[in-house]
Amino acid sequence: MNTPSLDPWSSSDSEFPSKPSFLVSISKINNRVIKYLDLGAVYLTLTWYATKRHSEIERKMAVEAVVSVVIQELSELLNEKSEIFEKVRDEVKKVMEELGEIQSILNNAEHQEQINKVLTNSVVQFLGKVYSIGDAIESFALTKHSLEKMGFVKKHVFVVANEFKLCREVPDVMDWSEDVRRLKSKMKGFSKEFQGWKGGIPLLAPARHQDSHTIRQHLQPWQESDAYYTRKREDTIFKKDVQKLLMQITSNSKPLQIISVFGEIGIGKSAHVKTIYNKQEVKNKFKCRALVVVYTNWSVRHLILGILRQVNSVKGLEKLNDEVLIGRLHGFLKGHKYLIVINDITSLELLEKVRGALPDAYNGSRVVITTPNIEAASFADALCKYRFNPIDMEGGLAIFVKKVWGAKGSPFSDEIMEELKNRIAESCKGTLLRISLLAGLLSTRKEVYEDWSSVFRQLDFATKSPSFDIFAFCYDDLPLHLKPCFLYLALFRKGYEIPVRRLFRLWLAEGFVKPSEEGLIPEDMVEGYLEELVNRNMVEITKKRSDESPKKCRMIAALHDVFLPRAVEIGLFHLHQKSDAAEEPPRIRVRRLVEYTNIKDYLTSKAFNQNLQSYISFNGRKKDMPAKEVGIFLQKTIGARGFGLLKVLDLEGVYQPKLPENLGNLFHLRYLGLRWTFLDTLPTSLGGLLYLETLDIKHTHITTLPSSIWKMKHLRHLCLNGSRLDISAKSRAPSQLQTLWGLFVDEKDARKIGLTLSKMTNLRKLDLTRRSSSTSNSSSYEEIDLWIQSLSSLQSLRLRSKDKMGRPSELIVKPFSSLKNLSQLYLLGHLHKSLDWYQIPAGVKVLTLSVSQLEDDPMPTLSQLSSLMVLRLLADSYVGEEMHCPEKGFPALRVLKLWKLENLKLFTVHEGTMQKLHTLEIRCCENLEDLPVTLLQIKGLDNLVLTDMPELFVSAIKKKKEKHTKIVENK
Q1: How far, in Å, are 282, 347, 903, 955 from residue 971 at the CA level?
Q2: Per-residue buried b or exposed e for 212-247, using 16+ beta carbons within 10 Å of the residue's own CB
Q3: Longest dimension (CA), the chain
Q4: CB–CB of 364/339 below 8 Å?
Q5: Cβ distance 903 to 927 under 8 Å?
Q6: What predicted TM-score, i.e. pTM, was given to this entire model?
Q7: What is the distance between the alpha carbons of residues 297 and 290, in angstroms, rounded to a whole number?
Q8: What confidence tens digit (pLDDT) does each residue in 877-895 have?
Q9: Alpha carbon separation from 400 to 391, 405, 606, 656, 735 (Å, rounded)
Q10: What's the CA angle centered on 745, arms 743 and 748, to 5 degrees?
């Protein structure tokens, strides 16, 4: 079967105009401009226009996004390199104004009741001109920059090479005055074409002013936002069904039972089954467990491998054929009592094939499948079937009210609520996800029903389309800058928990962040982006840090199924997940390459890779063979383009990838992620990455970095692994650095390093380990201590002091009172004074003390910290025998951990103290005699973890605890 062409001008459909001339020569355009156009949005419009599978308004909005990115990126370029454009300033300024006018026209078009097809087609054609003008401006800047870097001899050698076509990377025209003339000509030509284009489009009414659409302004630290800060517990909607299913899974029936759970997409079946899977009683009953999420077009091989990797650690599975894999899984499971959960399977054929690998050992094993497909749900061997039916109207309204207003309830009248109930039922069809999405969308509007009614009118109009789905409706409602951010989440596998730290820095490096009008830095902006996506219920936080801030997130699974194909179709990224023989070549040039299988099997032809901007690898092979093929691929990428166009190189988790020595030729690289790669060294050319923003070598074996790192003037996040920095007298630390994590400082270099670090005044996160001898002179670290005191923006601080043997030693630091923004503080080492001397700021939320050897009870001081949420007193942090918590102390404390306080005997908690405590963990406090009743009777105390505590102590606590408090006992 022939694959249909995605080139709209290759179609015989008379609806398409003749092929614009700019596409004929598009392969000749200098691809560096993609940094400024990016997002794959050019292809978004062209592909959707060709296939006609999406609405006219979606295509128009895609073009508006492109123009918005062009304006933003070119504005930054003009500001940063203003001297380069001195001779063409007037022409470029005029074009920038015209780009703004184009954006205004498109914004007006968004709010017309019906989009004029003439306008849409005209916009699509004119997009190529916008694309090429950005290309011309960027090429002009790149040529100038390249010439300035060349010496006289080298420059003329390249000129000769270019004349004889020996060096394709050198611009065709080396004469600077000729470049100026050409750019001026292009600017004037664009202005003329723009006027002609504008004159040929229909007159549009002004855009309606939508002041009700209030995007959440990120004016305070996101940790204080309800989106993350409040502890949430999702109510079980299908409580009876879940209870029945739990009883079925944990019953004592011996034969293998295959259980089918059926329900529409978004009904909540997979989430509820996962909740059961993670229950402690289920974990205790089934030591052999696997939960696999099935992806579109998965074969039985994918499914078998997915199960095997969770139940068995055998290496080399990828080399085995399907029959052997099925035999391996069957043989392994036969000797175990197992629970296998297969989520989101839609193919009855796939179920029948995998059935042969699931033996009945007559030991109570269970297999649970969830599916929205009624045919798959009717699988003959599934003797137990559960159907999750749509939520009724009253239930749907109750869920909606809770999602929007929480416990405070609706502010609307009963009459309005009755109408709202009907609207919800009509739009959401009783599915939990659709109700959540509608609630998230309406939460961005003012609580005025007239404003909400306008949304419902749009819904009414949209539902007339046979292809309507509220998923797409909510996506269309996203602000322009959030659309690429949301789609970008789909490049991570469905169900994959994305580290928020990683996601934020990737968004920044990809250029998705628009400038802030409130003066917020980019890191604040991306936090606001995630917050809005969470508030809209399109992204979920899957794991939180101890202070309730988000640690991991993911796109809602059902949305992943919908939007992954769209993101791939529009060219936002290309997934390499099959071998060369099986994988279809990309239909459009690849902007972002996401690797799920060995990159050596990838098609490396120039046509597909000359525009490559991002390479993100999830090649999770076993940690036995270094990934040499990564270096070969990168070498080809760099060699093909000279400078290299990559902005993102993310190899996190790839075992020892081979990096090319000329890595520094990736001149425009913004993000280099090497966390968990276990690399030993970095290429010496690292210093050539002048525009690098993030360098992450945490969890590697790299212990030193060259002094050339200080050339990286744009570096914002430097994550090390206890590494030393080579600092010379001429070193100039990047003043805009936000994160410096994992730095190791030796005593002999401390003063010199301190003088260099003192230039970093904007740090927000600092982790520093210093080596001190027993006879250490504290003055060696005087400059570093004074520098830390000056970091007024510091939010997270970890300081450790160790001797030459790696053992904790004396930690001499100055008071922290000047660090008003400090939220997290971790201190390891002997503190030479009582705790109150250190003047810990009242805003600290997480405090960890280890080997502090405090002799005075720290609780009276710590109890006064009004924001303290998490307190960890670890090994030998306190060496006294008694600890007293004063009345009404610790007003915000939620987690308390007491570890290896070997001398502690008496722990007193007065009335009204720690009233928000929900988790208490006590480990290896062998002399502790008891816990006070005032502590055990705290209403919210849900989790009590006792590890390596005497049996008599545990028995006594079990008798005194409240019923709702769950004890976890570890040995």
Answers
A1: 20, 45, 20, 14
A2: eeeeeebeebbbebebbbeeeeeeebbeebbeebbe
A3: 89
A4: no
A5: yes
A6: 0.81
A7: 20
A8: 999 999 999 999 999 999 9
A9: 12, 8, 51, 49, 47
A10: 165
